Task: inverse folding
């Protein structure tokens, strides 16, 4: 009996030592907590996950003020900063992050990726189409703040413009306007060059061209038109196009480096 008891104690002691050195329990730093609040109006979640520590406490309070209207009306809203991107692609990271947090629920999150130096505005759910159409414009509008190290203003304005877009307002797009102006200038220069080349070109008529310029006259009398036959007409049947297969879960938005 005593031998069995000692054997049991020995086994339990061995299991305890094994758990200390092999089965290490999760430490607090291994767990990722996202702190935020829920909208009283809709129950949507709004939060700031500042892993890269780009904001001070006062800035975080102000950023929550711009996130709250989004959560009160449209969906989950957040600002995420990271200093390590395991995907090495901010859009892939953003898509996985939103999928893990909210699934297909209405969501819009602004990401500042310090690893890849990329800003990404990403979304999912019913609001995805609106955010996806404006994502590149919004990140174009705010990337200069991030380039100057003013991450607070970049994040604030990105979420402010997201709310304007979802509310049906228009987003200014100076980068797009400049791009269109530049393209118009280049096209006008090319057109002017082609016109100048054509205007300065000289043509020398050959013999056949000179003869073709001689006036000719023809007269036809008592013309009879006789129908002989009709060729078969071929009209192909229109073929319908089949629908494409669906892929995996995917959100949408836009990005810009800084």
Result:
């Amino acid at each position: 009996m005593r031998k069995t008891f000692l054997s049991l104690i020995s086994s339990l002691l061995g299991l305890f030592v094994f758990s200390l050195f092999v089965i290490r329990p999760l430490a607090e730093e291994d767990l990722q907590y996202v702190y935020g609040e829920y909208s009283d109006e809709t129950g949507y979640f709004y939060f700031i996950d500042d892993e890269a520590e780009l904001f001070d406490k006062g800035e975080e309070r102000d950023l929550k003020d711009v996130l709250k209207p989004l959560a009160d009306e449209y969906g989950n809203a957040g600002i995420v900063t990271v200093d390590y991107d395991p995907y090495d692609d901010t859009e892939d990271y953003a898509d996985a992050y939103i999928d893990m947090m909210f699934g297909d629920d209405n969501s819009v999150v602004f990401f500042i990726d310090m690893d890849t130096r990329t800003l990404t505005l990403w979304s999912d759910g019913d609001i995805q189409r609106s955010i996806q159409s404006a994502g590149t414009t919004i990140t174009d509008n705010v990337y200069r703040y991030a380039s100057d190290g003013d991450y607070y203003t970049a994040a604030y304005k990105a979420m402010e413009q997201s709310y304007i877009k979802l509310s049906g307002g228009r987003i200014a797009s100076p980068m797009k306007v400049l791009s269109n102006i530049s393209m118009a200038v280049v096209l006008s220069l090319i057109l002017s060059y082609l016109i100048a080349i054509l205007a300065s070109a000289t043509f020398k008529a050959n013999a056949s061209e000179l003869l073709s310029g001689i006036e000719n006259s023809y007269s036809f009398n008592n013309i009879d038109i006789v129908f002989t036959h009709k060729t078969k007409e071929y009209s192909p049947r229109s073929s319908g196009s089949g629908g494409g297969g669906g892929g995996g879960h995917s959100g949408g938005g836009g990005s810009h480096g800084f």
Notes: Helices lie at 2-21, 57-73, 90-102, 128-147, 151-166, 174-200, 207-212.
